[in-house]
Specification:
It is globular, with a radius of gyration of 17 Å. The strands form two sheets. Strands 1, 2, 3, 4, 5, 8, 10, 11, 12, 13 and 14 form an eleven-stranded mixed β-sheet that branches. The protein has one domain: 3-Layer(aba) Sandwich (Glutaconate Coenzyme A-transferase), CATH 3.40.1080. The chain is built from four helices and 14 strands. Helix 4 (about 195-200) links the parallel strand 12 (about 185-190) and strand 13. By secondary structure, it is of the alpha/beta class. The model has no long low-confidence stretch (mean pLDDT about 95). It has helices at about 5-15, 85-95, 130-135, 195-200; strands spanning about 20-25, 45, 50-55, 75-80, 100-105, 105-110, 115, 140, 155, 170, 175-180, 185-190, 205-210, 215. InterPro entries: 3-oxoacid_CoA-transf_B, CoA_trans_fam_I, CoA_transf_AS, NagB/RpiA_transferase-like. It comes from Aequorivita vitellina. One of its GO terms (molecular function) is CoA-transferase activity. Keywords: Transferase.
Length: about 220
Amino acid sequence: MALTKEQIAQRIAKEVKDRYYVNLGIGIPTLVANFVRDDINVEFQSENGILGMGPFPFEGEEDPDLINAGKQTITALPGASFFDSAMSFGMIRGQHVDLTILGAMEVAQNGDIANWKIPGKMVKGMGGAMDLVASAENIIVAMMHTNRAGESKLLKECSLPLTGVQCVKKIVTNLAVLEIKDGKFHLLERAPGVTVEEIQKATEGDLIVDGAIAEMKF
């Protein structure tokens, strides 16, 4: 059974370690803050100028002045700090972020990512994605394995304009957890009830399957 967006975020939350500084991109990544273990200390950074971002607020408790980069209302944890975009991107470009979690439209088997533009469609701009992928040492992508037409989004080469080159390390989709290594996708885990064959069929890029592939645990 394919994962929901919330389950993708829940699985990615297992990659977040104690004392990490983590940047969350818009879309599925924003959900990760809801699932991080209570016994670890993590600082979530949003590029619009907050360090110490918490989970989404409960209905009725939203503060319209407190938002993330995707303009969603958020909470701030005790000790959170607020600053301008220059300071925020100084943190990002200065490589002070331990983990970056981004959404993507396409990922290539060499680690290229396309996540900002579909030709012919109106977009507001690349935003901070270019800085994040150029500066981050550890990038995890949260995405659907296929598009609405059932076509793979894990490709030999990206067809959309690139945001960054050879930068993605790991991908969590609604079907699987994959690592990019030696120019190929390596299957690490599969979603509960999803077979290796289904993942292979949904992956256009070269997929390496080494031994038995365990189901994800949450």
